[in-house]
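TASK: fixed-backbone design
INPUT:
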């Protein structure tokens, strides 16, 4: 009798977006003429930059010529892209990386989901709460998270609450943890950590021989001076941190697919007898066995992001979204709502008025002003009483949504 991986049966259903879909469908059925604006999804809407498109076309032409045709590429990514990552994303921050410390991939979802494979099954993981669900779910699938309790928490996962009371700064865990997932700028809260706060985590990881899995998918949205762009800006982080970055939100590659993971050779995990093992070697082994690289065409497109023109174009797109974020933030604040994020990230995290539950506010927003957002509780128990709006919509729909909230929402 063939057996299933029963760990999968421990996963809660993908309740959040299914339930949003169900409620929106019902509302549409009851109100067929309603003009619904969706500020819930975390997907981009602006087309790819012109330099990226040009590079894509050129790469396609190369594939049509036997002199420039490419078959399998290096599993770790092409040199031309790895060199650009090092030179443009890390050198300016004073961070030196070797080429074999950069792994190009087809997305940070896969990388943040797959990375747990190279760690022991008995490790204790810690996540902020609320959290991007991939970190927890991938550990549940592997059998590392334990079982789900009635509060929506897995019993072998350490949850680090982030809320208005602690200004969304997670406290160091009281118990020892091994794998620490941090995401800054944060999805879903849109908040950041200062260098001093981040240093506490790096120091903790060094003292406890833990590893930090640092998701920087929204790094390009940082606007304020002094906010760390990379965890390697913190002294000692190269011993204990793996960093994930993506072209998805930086350059509109959500459908095009390209990302990268930085795994310094100095990051170690230990055997049962305490022997240190370089995680870089293990990740390389994992990738060469299970992954065959990102297509040449797509890596060429990603490389165009680093040209002078490409940089200018992606900055304009990011500014477009960040102007939306400002419109949302200021609009909500003007009617007295308590608002977080949206300054260094495309996400606005608001406290629901009158201590309403996340889902009650969802229904209120949908019914009164026909706007769809994401209930905060869907990202973890500490998200209850919060709500996420995204700045990835068009300017016109963002302005209209905020006008409707200002004039039509009954507070
Ligand atoms: N990490 C975070 C925090 C995200 O919010 C997302 C996408 O929404 C990802 C990673 C996934 O990025 P990618 O498109 O590179 O898979």
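OUTPUT:
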């Amino acid at each position: 009798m063939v057996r299933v991986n029963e760990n999968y049966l421990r996963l809660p259903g993908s309740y959040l977006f299914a339930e949003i879909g169900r409620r929106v469908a019902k509302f549409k059925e009851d109100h067929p003429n309603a003009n619904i604006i969706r500020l819930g999804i975390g997907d981009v809407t602006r087309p790819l930059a012109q330099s990226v498109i040009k590079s894509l076309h050129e790469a396609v032409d190369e594939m049509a010529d036997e002199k420039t045709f490419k078959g399998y590429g290096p599993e770790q990514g092409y040199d031309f892209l790895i060199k650009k990552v090092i030179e443009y994303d890390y050198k300016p921050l004073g961070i030196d990386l070797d080429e074999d410390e950069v792994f190009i991939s087809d997305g940070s979802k896969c990388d943040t989901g797959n990375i747990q494979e190279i760690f022991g099954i008995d490790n204790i993981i810690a996540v902020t709460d609320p959290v991007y669900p991939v970190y927890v779910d991938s550990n549940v699938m592997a059998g590392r998270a334990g079982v789900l309790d009635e509060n929506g928490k897995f019993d072998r996962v350490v949850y680090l609450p982030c809320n208005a009371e602690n200004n969304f700064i997670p406290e160091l865990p009281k118990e020892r943890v091994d794998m620490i997932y941090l995401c800054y700028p944060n999805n879903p809260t849109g908040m950041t950590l200062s260098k001093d706060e981040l240093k506490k985590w790096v120091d903790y990881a060094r003292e406890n021989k833990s590893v930090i899995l640092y998701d920087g998918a929204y790094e390009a949205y940082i606007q304020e001076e002094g906010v760390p762009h990379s965890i390697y800006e913190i002294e000692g982080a190269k011993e204990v941190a793996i960093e994930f970055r993506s072209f998805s939100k930086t350059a509109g590659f959500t459908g095009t697919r390209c990302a990268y993971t930085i795994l310094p050779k100095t990051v170690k995990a230990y055997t049962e007898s305490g022997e240190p093992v370089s995680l870089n070697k293990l990740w390389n082994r994992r990738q060469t066995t299970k992954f065959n690289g990102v297509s040449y065409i797509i890596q060429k497109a990603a490389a165009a992001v680093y040209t002078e023109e490409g940089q200018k174009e992606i900055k304009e797109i990011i500014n477009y979204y960040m102007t939306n974020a400002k419109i949302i933030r200021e609009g909500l604040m003007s009617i007295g709502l308590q608002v977080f994020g949206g300054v260094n990230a495309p996400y606005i995290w608001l406290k629901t008025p009158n201590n309403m539950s996340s889902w009650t506010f969802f229904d209120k927003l949908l019914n009164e002003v026909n706007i769809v957002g994401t209930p905060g509780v869907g990202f973890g128990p500490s998200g209850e009483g919060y709500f996420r709006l995204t700045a990835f919509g068009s300017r016109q729909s963002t302005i209209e949504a905020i006008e409707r909230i200002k004039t039509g929402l009954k507070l």
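COMMENT: The pocket of pyridoxal-5'-phosphate is lined by residues 42, 107-109, 112, 132, 183, 187, 215, 217, 246, 248, 254, 259 (CB under 6 Å).
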